[in-house]
Fold this sequence. Notes:
Largest sheet: 5 strands, parallel
Family: Belongs to the transketolase family.
Order of helices and strands: HHEHHEHEHHEHEHH
Helix content: 25-40%
CATH class: Alpha Beta
CATH superfamily: Thiamin diphosphate (ThDP)-binding fold, Pyr/PP domains
Cofactor: thiamine diphosphate
Keywords: Thiamine pyrophosphate
CATH topology: Rossmann fold
Structural class: alpha/beta
Protein name: Transketolase subunit A
Domain Transketolase N-terminal: 32-270
Amino acid sequence: MTSLSRSAARSNTSLELRAWNIRRKALLMGEVQGQGYIGQALGIADVLAAAYFHALDYRAEEPEWEGRDRFLLSIGHYAIALYAVLMEAGILPEEELETYGMDDSRMPMSGMASYTPGMEITGGSLGHGLGIAVGMAMGLKRKKSPAFIYNLMSDGELGEGSTWEAAMSGAHHKLDNLICLVDFNDQQADGKSTEMLCSEPLTEKWEAFGWHAQRVNGNDLAAVVKAFDTARSATDAKPRVIIFDTTMCKGVPFLEAREITHFVRVEADEWGKALAVLEEGKPA
C-alpha cells in the first residue's frame, strides 16, 4: 500500500481471512434468498480480497471520493460477491446482509449503481463494462488524476464484440491507468466457455491487441497479489489485463464437484452445510 488513504487498519487482517469472510458473507446472502450466483462469488473471493485490501485506493467512509480508484463490475450478476467485499471493507453496513435481494434493499440481485454505495456502474448486459472503463480512464487522464480504473469481467464477455472494440480503443489511447480483470472460470449458462466460443490463446490475444497481459491462478493469493503489483507498476504506456483462472464454488468442495455451477443449485438444507464446511477451513 502506498497511499495514506489506504488505512493501516486494512492490513491488520490477513488477505486469506478477508477472502474467507467474503465467501462467508456471500453464502449468508445466498441463504437469505435461497439462491444466487454463489459459485462465482466463492470463486472470485481471493481476487476481491487482494483488490480491496491490497491494490485499490479508496475511502470507505467516502465512497465517491474523487481520488479513488474505480472498481467496475461489468458482470452485474456477480453483485453478491461485490456486496460481500463492500461489507468487508466497511462501505456497506453488515447489518444490511439480511436484506439481500428484497424490495427496497440497497443490494438487488443484479448490481445497480443508483442503489448501492461503492457500485460504480450498473452492469448486467454483458460486454459493456470495458467500454465504460475505457471512457472513465480517458476522463481521469484528462483530469491528470493518478487513479486507476479496474474492470472485472467474465470469460463469457470475451465472446462479445464490444469487448474487443474497447480493448482496441484502450490500447490506441495508451490507457496505462486501466486494469482489466478477467474471471476465467470456464462456465456459462449453456456450458463451458471454451466450448461455447473459444477465446484461446487468451494471453497472446490480449498482447496482440496492445495490452500488457498476465495470466495467473485466481485462487492463489500470492500469485494474485503479485499480478496486481505488476499491473500497477508496469511502466509501458498501455492498458493492463490480468486473466484469473478460478474454480467455481471454491472453498466448498461438495459444491465445487457439481457438474452445473454457473447458477449452482443449493438446496435449503445445504446452505448450513456449506457454511459449516467453510468454517472448517477458516484461516488462523
